Amino acid sequence: MNNTLTLKRLVCEHCGAELSGLSDCITFQCETCYRYFIITPEGLKDIAVYTAICEEQYKEQLLQLPFWVIEIDRALLRKEIEGSLSELRNHKGTIAKTKLEKDPEDESDFFSSNLHTGMEKLNIIASQRLIPGSREIEYLISTIESFKSFFIYIPAFISKNPFAYLKVGKLLTGKQPAFKIEKSTLPGKPVMCALQQDEAVELIDFVFFATLPPSILKCGDFLNPISLKVSGTPRLVLFPFQKRENSFFSIIGEFSISHRLVDVIM
After folding, report:
1. pLDDT of 89-143, one tens digit each?
2. Domain residue limits, the chain
3. 246-262 burial, b for 16+ CB within 10 Å, e for fewer?
4. In sequence order, what are the residues at sequence separation of 6 or more whose Cβ sits closer than 8 angstroms to the Cβ of residue 197?
5. pTM for the whole thing?
6. What is the Cα–Cα distance from 96 to 76, expressed in whole angstroms?
7. Which of 159, 46, 1, 140 is nearest to 84 (CA)?
8. Which residues pair with 11 in a beta bridge?
9. CA 118, CA 139: separation in Å to the nearest integer?
10. 3-state class (DSSP) for residue 250
11. Which letter, b or e, does each residue of 197-208 get, where b requires 16 or more Cβ atoms within 10 Å of its Cβ?
12. Following DSSP, what letter does each residue of 37-85 receive, concatenated?
């Protein structure tokens, strides 16, 4: 077995120029031909980087934060939601038909027998699973299907706080903002990306569930079998944020996040 460690220079596969990147980032931009690359377990690969177009004009330079924008298969999501709901309803129906009868050979007194029956009822009630309301589920599905496409937004910027990915991803996913994108080819536009595409895909269920109302979130048995499926290819998109006193304001989606959630590399 060969345990020799080989060090390779990072060079652009198109023009041969040496690539220089930012600490902790896994993306690079060639300073000669302006193409983007990302380091993966398989090596250096080309990657398309997009910029969300900001319609307004701002005097100061905006901070561009990267997100993996992942479209989900809404038809499969509806199928899984309806399947989970049907299974729980069948379970509840089985419990409702269960008869509690006193054992004829049980010679215990009236108090003891009723206490025993009461404990059986408590055990069965405890075994019942929480089921979301039909109207609430229909509203959820109709909301998702009201968009031309439904995207999950996974933050890809550097953060020492893992909560940031859930917090910020939830805000942008909940907004489902309408915007246009263009391919980024401008020089001097480093991408502060620290998250691989496959890692982002693994987070889509968590971010989606975080957008749900508490009345559905408490139904763990309902959510457990639901797993979102990706439709199309995830895109790495830069979103504009305006620096404010102690926060960053998202121009697209119009929400603010604490500056402590983002490690900005200047």
Report:
1. 886 655 445 554 555 555 555 445 555 555 554 454 444 557 888 889 999 999 9
2. 48-266
3. ebbbbbbbeeebebebb
4. 68, 234, 236
5. 0.81
6. 30
7. 140
8. 18
9. 38
10. strand
11. beebbebbeebb
12. EEEETTEEEE--EEEEPP-S--SSPPEEEEEEEEEB-HHHHHHHHHHHH
